[in-house]
Amino acid sequence: MHGSVILVDETRRHRSGWWCHMVSDRSVEELHAFASEIGLRRRWFQDGPRPHYDLRPSKRRLAVAKGAKEVNTRVLVRRMARG
């Protein structure tokens, strides 16, 4: 991944179930490439000032198995690529 890091934060309970966030610390393009590798659809991307994908626990486990780094939400927000 050319020195970039994909980050995932803690899984948390929301009204719709358990979710976490996945971001890149380098670029949205690398985030999309990694998301594709773990079977996420581009339309699930959450654009805006904090670009990310929401992950269910099973996809989070897959992301971590493929090299995503587990961090807390504060670190994730501080390090995320903004576009």
Fold topology:
Layout: E1 6-8, E2 12-14, E3 17-24, H1 28-37, E4 45-46, E5 52-55, H2 57-65, E6 69-70, H3 73-79
Parallel strand pairs: 1-6
Antiparallel strand pairs: 1-3, 2-3, 3-5, 4-5
Structure description:
This protein is of the alpha+beta class. The protein has one domain. 31% of the residues lie in helices and 27% in strands. It has helices at residues 28-37, 57-65, 73-79, and strands spanning 6-8, 12-14, 17-24, 45-46, 52-55, 69-70. Strands 1, 2, 3, 4, 5 and 6 form a six-stranded mixed beta sheet that branches. The longest helix has 10 residues, at 28-37. The radius of gyration is 11 Å and the shape is globular.
Regions with little confidence, pLDDT below 50 for 5+ residues: none
Number of domains: 1
- Describe the biggest sheet? 6 strands, mixed
How many angstroms does the end-to-end distance come to? 17 Å
What share of the residues lie within helices? 25-40%
Helix count equals 3
Query: If you compute it from the alpha carbons, what radius of gyration comes out, rounded to the nearest whole angstrom?
Result: 11 Å
Count of strand segments: 6
- Approximately what portion of the residues adopt beta-strand conformation? 25-35%
Assembly state? single chain
Question: Structural class given helices, strands, pairing?
Answer: alpha+beta
- Outline, from the CA principal axes? globular
Q: Give the rounded overall mean pLDDT.
A: 93
